[in-house]
Write the structure tokens for this entry.
Amino acid sequence: MTTRPMTEAERIIELEDELAAARRTIDVLIARLERTGTAPPAQSELFDAAVRLGNVLEERTREVEDARAEFRALRANLDQIVRQRTRALAESEIQLRTMNGELVRQGKIKAEFISIAAHELRTPLTSIVGYLDLFQEGRFGELPPLIGRPLSSVRRNAHRLKRLVDDMLDVSRIEQGRMPLRREPVNLGEVVTDVVTELEPMARARELHVATRIGEVESIDADRDKLHQIAVNLVTNAIRYTPEQGDITIEVDEAPSERYAGGGWARLRVRDNGVGIAEEDRPRIFDPFLHLHPAKHHTSALPDSAGLGLFIAKGLVDAHGGLITVDSQPGEGTEFTVLLPFKSHQRRDTEPPER
């Protein structure tokens, strides 16, 4: 059995007990010698023992004093260390508060700059894109043969730039918690069907096989345009990271109540067999301006080349009181799941369902 080593305080108490016992023994021996007044052999032995005890007493006294001095020094040193650590912690707390305040200030400045810049860019871009569309449609007469191709390129890039500006405005609104919603009864299946039709040429250009399974679900109380944007961002993300001739599956149904607590959820799932997402990267997948994969996996020819699509999708889902999750394995593919409450099961200010 292992014994616990004694502390300095316990050692001092033990030495004091030994000194007290030694003093009592010496007092007894001295009293005996004073009564006899002689020193026969037995009493001489007692006297020698008393001398030895006296030496022990003197040695123990020194040890006690040394131990007490060491204890006082340790306590003073400990007090000094505690005071130093307390001051250091207080200074660190002040620095952290200062840094946090500066980060908050910088974040507000960034959000304000993005909002102002996007608004300032949006007005002239809307005019530019509008006139380019009119030129492309022949509203100003037939274009010379050599102008058609360059004009198409300019128009395509102008539309890309306008999408980026619109995304920046959405990011600003989401970060400031000011995303407006025009709610109405919306059929999620119809919205997703429109999105698949809209993005079919993009998928066909990469020889992707897109399968849809649209079930019958009741209407949800939502902003139709924002739901359209959520679906576009998720499907575009799947197209971007699925290799040519890959598979994408898009499903809409009612989430099973036995799997999702409480029930009353419309569910959208977008699954691909693309490059997948590493486990350590999944917590950051909804961060803005994020590209988790090397440049070979994405191109500026597709929407969301700035890495804002998933951040915006999550912000819009959250604004509707819904939930978005990701399940992925590197090299096997990724599945995004969106849950949106039916109109009769609005879940405002509540915890999301458990999967």
